[in-house]
Every structure is written in structure tokens, then in C-alpha cells.
Amino acid sequence: MRTPVIAGNWKLYKKSAEAVNLVSELIPLVKQTTGVEIIVAPVFTVLGKVRDVIAGTNVMLAAQDCFWEEEGAYTGEVSPGMLCDTGCSHVIIGHSERRQYFGETDTTVNRKIKAALAAGLTVLFCIGETLAERESGNTFKVLDSQVCGGLGDIPMAELSKIIIAYEPVWAIGTGKTATNEQAQEAHAHIRALIARLYGRDEAEAIRILYGGSVKPENIKGLMAQPDIDGALVGGASLNAPSFAAIANYKL
Ligand code: PEP
User: DSSP string spanning the chain?
Assistant: First the structure.
């Protein structure tokens, strides 16, 4: 039985007062929520403030990225150990916006995942095809190379600390959600690949989230799919009632 995960990626939004307001509004709306792991991922600068507000609640803290070195002359970077020190339990790695705008590759994603695991963080590992890749019939090929590249050399024992987020790039922030069937097909493909790489038990255990314009209106249909174990939510996570409605979905 896989515990569902609903994670909110706040992207480059919410300064400290807004972040505190958002999470303070969210907490009472999800405090009765059981059987779902709830995570918020604010910008680095407000992690400490959000940590203080969520202390003792069922909301967990993620960062949106990290570097692969623990310390050194790397101006502007933040290490996995620093994220733990700030109260993060999770980190998003390989988000398509980082691949698209900041030159992240499967190689850098792999280095970051290894470093985050070594620090004890749970990784939300993002993959997904572009519209051109889907339309040219290459979706599965792209997913295969992102999964194999991102998880390269990661041993089976570490897999329980990895949550995969399948986010078709064409559905992120566009209002276009993959159909339930398109999402399920991709998730089943990813799970079958994990079975080939790590074995059937690991594939059965790993959580695979869907991301791409998830809203209160479409979460139920997505969660009804057998291989969808939760959602990585961007836009709708910036509004507490919307995010809470997603986390409180009922099948
Ligand atoms: C995301 O940022 O990971 C995302 C899925 O965004 P949105 O929900 O806005 O499409």
C-alpha cells in the first residue's frame, strides 16, 4: 500500500509574510487529513520561516533544488546538508523549469540526487516529456533516459527515499492536464521500468506523482488511476483552499 503524497511547489513566489500567511491558512485546512503526506516547497529564503510555522503539524518542508557538493567555493549554491539544517525533509530535483532554464541535465540531476540522499533527504525526482517529444512519439524513450540517467548508480536500498514526479512539460502551468489515461499510461510505463531496474517489489513500493495543472477539479480522476500516487502541484498550491482541497481529495 503506497501512501499518497500531495506536494506544493511554490516556485518563485511568496516573500516571507505571504509565505507565512499561506502556510498558516493551510494548516487548519489539512490538520484532519490522514493517510496523505503533505509537503510544501517554498523558496530558499523563506524555508526557516515556514519551518517555524509548520512545526508540530502534518505539513512537511521541501526545497526546490540543491547543489551536489556539501560545501566549498560555489557562490550562490545551497547544499543538501544546509537544507537538512534548515528543517527540510524533502527536496525537488530535476524540475523541468530547472532543466529548461538552468541547463540541468540527467547527469547533474543524478549528482544532486546522490548528494541529497547522502544527506538524508527524500527526493522528489521530476521527469517528463516536452510537447515536441510527445508528438514525435518519443515520450517513453525520453522517460526511460531520464529515469535511467537520474537514478544511475543509485542502489536499491536508497529507492525508498525517492519519489518520482511525472510532469509532462506541456501540462505545467498551461492549464492543460494530461488525461487520466495519458497519465496512467506514463506512470505504468515508469513503474515497469523501475521493476526492470530494481525488481518488482521496489516498483510496487515507489510513489509516482503526477504534475501538470493539477486542480481540485481534476485530482480525483487522477488519483483513481492505479499507478498515480499523488500530485506535485504548482499554481494551485499558491492558494491554501485549493491546495487543501487537492490534499483532501476523496475517491
Ligand atoms: C509544477 O510546478 O511542478 C507544476 C506541476 O505546476 P502547475 O501545477 O502550475 O502546472
Answer: -PPPEEEEE-TT---HHHHHHHHHHHHHHHTT--S-EEEEE--GGGHHHHHHHHTTSSEEEEES---SSSSSS-TT---HHHHHHTT-SEEEES-HHHHHHS---HHHHHHHHHHHHHHTPEEEEEE---HHHHHTT-HHHHHHHHHHHHTTT--GGGGGGEEEEE--GGGTTSS-PPPHHHHHHHHHHHHHHHHHHH-HHHHHH-EEEEESS--TTTHHHHHTSTT--EEEESGGGGSHHHHHHHHT---
Each residue's pLDDT tens digit, 44-77: 999 999 999 999 999 999 999 999 999 999 999 9
pTM above 0.85, yes or no: yes
Give the pLDDT mean for 117-131: 98
Q: Which of 11, 100, 210, 228 to mutate to test the pocket of ligand 1 (most atoms within 8 A of CB)?
A: 11
Mean pLDDT over 34-38 rounds to 98
How close is the Cα of 124 to the center of ligand 1, in Å?
13
| 167 flagged as catalytic | yes
* Ligand 1 atom at shortest distance from the alpha carbon of 211: 5
| Residue 231 Cα: closest atom of ligand 1 | 5
Chain segment 88-113, per-residue pLDDT in tens = 999 999 999 999 999 999 999 999 99
Q: Is the CB of 97 under 6 A from ligand 1?
A: no
Which pLDDT does position 177 carry in this prediction?
A: 85
Residue with CA closest to ligand 1 atom 7:
234
| Amino acid (1-letter code) at residue 89 | S
